[in-house]
Amino acid sequence: MKFTLKNKKNNFIRRTACLLLCGAVLTGFSACQPDESNADSGEKAVITMLYPTKLPEFEALLESTYTDIDLQIEINAVATVSGQSERRLLNGHGTDIVTVLTPSANVSDYLADLSEMEYTSRYSSQVMRSYMVNGQAKYIPLPGQYSGYIYNVTIAKELGFDKIESRSDLLALLEAGSKAKKGTGEDGTLFSIYATDLGSLGSFYIGNHVPDYLAQSEGIIWSDNIKQGNGSFTGAFDNALDFPMKMVEEGYFDPYTLEGQSAHVIERMGNGTMLLTYGGVNLYDTIRSEGKDYEYEMIPFLSDEGNQPWTVSAPCAFLGINASLEQNDPKKLDACHRMLSLLSTTKGQEALIKDIGAAQTYLTEGVKNGGEIPDGLKSCIDGGYVYNIRIPTDLMCYIANRFDRVLLGSAELSAVLEQFDDYYYSGREEINSDVSIVGWVEHDMICENYNVRLGETEIGNLVSDAVREAAESDIGFINGGSIRSSLYEGDVLGADLDAVCPYDNKIVVLKTNGRVIREMLENGVSQLVRDNDIPSGRFLNVSGMCYSFDPETGEITSMTLPDGTPIKDSDEFTIAVTDYMAGNKGYIEDSGDGYTMLNVYSDTAPLAQDVQLVRETGLNCADVLGKYFAAHKAEGFDTRIEGRITSSK
Fold this sequence. Notes:
Helix content: 25-40%
Number of domains: 3
CATH class of the largest domain: Alpha Beta
CATH topology of the largest domain: D-Maltodextrin-Binding Protein, domain 2
Oligomer: single chain
CATH superfamily of the largest domain: Periplasmic binding protein-like II
């Protein structure tokens, strides 16, 4: 029998549905307290922390309560907060209060254990258990945001939609917008997700599965079973991607440009070139302030089975204390504990809610949840239909990473669900690398409008540099079709590298001469314009050399080394390319992008002349990017366009 939520009387199901996937059992809390004797010692303890905004209400409360504390907040972009925290901790320069968007084991190793502090017992035990690391409480959660869909009401009404009540209504709205070319941009998409981190992206995938499964009786039973170690994601999540996959199949949502779209969601929603997005209440407020010519509404996750809509909630960020203070500065450590203790009170939470525009606190009692609630979410929130996502953060990030691959077509859902089970019950180091910060870039490196197939780009230079360095070759080549996404200023996750280079073609090292390189380059510029106006993916991004070409004739007008030395036909080099270009998949139906002059694998095409296979690295492009970032962990990448590729016209 299937049980559904038809009305508000089913209080047991509503309450129980919030208890999803808690981690290890929380250890008992002692009545430890910060040392209040230092509160008025006369000498101020300066506490440093990173955050995306100033916190004037809370800062004023803290410094008036404890006159010996001076809180200094360094503002960083949302995308860089976690990475800055990790980099500084790893290099011994961490802030006193550590801010992260998604808790990770890499950072928690450098944080003080808060388990015995009394103030941690004021938070929901289910929430605290979810974010524990090896049985220790390393973080406290900040107030959270309600999340849901945000759509352009003005355009929707123009298309004949006065009300959106189901997933089918959303799909019909997107279909109408696509046909009328309203609420869409040049790329044809009408929807994208505003996700500043994998955790928030994971909330989108989980939220879509709430109304028709996770909030239902069978979903609650599944949650309880998996907490006890006898459940499985396989079977439970078989239909979790039905709705986003439908949007992908219809062309309303392009997962290849997911990261890129996130950076432009506010602009596109504000100017009417995007009809629908997903995000939090703070995003809704920002879009309304930007889009003065339109009306917007925020709505919860909807059902196609007549079930109650639900909204979801998760903390805006997490705070911990730098463990180095335990040895180096006990007085400042005490000040940090007093700060977190004050933050964990009614007054502290209410001040913070005003500062960050949050809507929900995770303290167990005594706080008024604040912030303006969008009209479209009020019935859910008033009725108790709020799904508090308490999946451990690393698992949430892993879910986002693997579901992305399913939408991209590079992974099967059945295999991914088996991986969820493997990760949840045993964990794997290689899986953790997908959701950990591998480095950062100092500015946007954009892959848009097929730019990596038309000329030199910063992202093309970065990938080709990584290919050359990992292969230890004289020259590195990467065809533009292998690069599929951008990197944006700030933190770079292992999953981001997979998005940039999603294919599994392996890098091989060949020995060849200048004549063959010239043929390669000529092939690379031979299809800049095709019948469908989409340039071929064969265009070559390079590292270790420069070239110029005539786009009208396809002639390579110059080939030089970076120092300007001309490359002669007889000059010999080692080059790094993908095995795809070298014929590993054959050259039928344009496989291999026409690089038959490199063929060392295919039996259906003539073997290459003056080309010798030196070695197979066994690494794909995402792997070599990972090695590149790991080798330069202590530095950010500031790769620029530097004249490697020029057009002679």
